[in-house]
Amino acid sequence: MPHPENISPLIDTQKKSAIDDILVRNQNSPGSTMVVLNEIQEKVGYIPNDVQRYVARVLGVPLSTIHGVVSFYSFFTTKPRGSQTVKLCLGTACYVGGTSQLIDKLQNELEIRVGETTADGEITLEVCRCVGACSQAPVVMVNEDMHGKVTPQKMTRLIKDLHRKKQVE
User: Fold this and answer.
1) What three-state secondary structure class fits 37?
2) In a 10 Å sphere around its CB, with 0-12 CB exposed, 13-18 middle and 19+ buried, how is residue 2 labelled?
3) What is the pLDDT of residues 146-155, one digit of tens each?
4) What is the pTM of this model?
5) Among residues 65, 84, 126, 136, which one has the fewest Cβ atoms lying within 10 Å of its Cβ?
6) Which residues are CB-neighbours of 23 under 8 A, at least 6 positions away?
C-alpha cells in the first residue's frame, strides 16, 4: 500500500469534493486565500504541492502567493501529520530546561527526526516557540494537552501512553 504522503488528496474523491466545496464557496470573495487554505488544512490535514497548484488555478492567484502563505505560517503543512502530534517548546526557559535532551530521546525512540511522522502514521514530532508556560519548563504539548517539567523518563511514559491509547481505540 502506498505511503499516505504519496497519495494526493485530489485523487481521493471525498477529499477532492471537500476541496472543491471550499473553493466554490470562497472563489468570488476577494482575499479568500487564507480562509481557503485554513479550511483545506482542517478538512484534508495538509496542503501538498499539487493541491497548492490546484487552489492557485481555481482562485486565479499566482502559485507563488499560495506557496508563500503555506510556507510562511507554521500551522500549515505540506505532508500528512500523524494522528498524534508531539510538540516540544524551544522557548528560552524550555531550551535551558532540557528540551534538546528530550528531542534527542524522542528522535531515538520514535526513529524519526523533528518534522517527520512515524512509519505507522501515528506520531508527528514537531518543535514550537514559547507556549507561555515558562514556569513549567521544559514543556511538551501532546496534541492539545500541555505537560510541564518533563524529564526524559516522563517523556518515555508519555509516548508509551500514546501507544496504549492507540491500542484501546
Assistant:
1) helix
2) exposed
3) 999 999 999 9
4) 0.72
5) 65
6) 36, 55, 58, 59
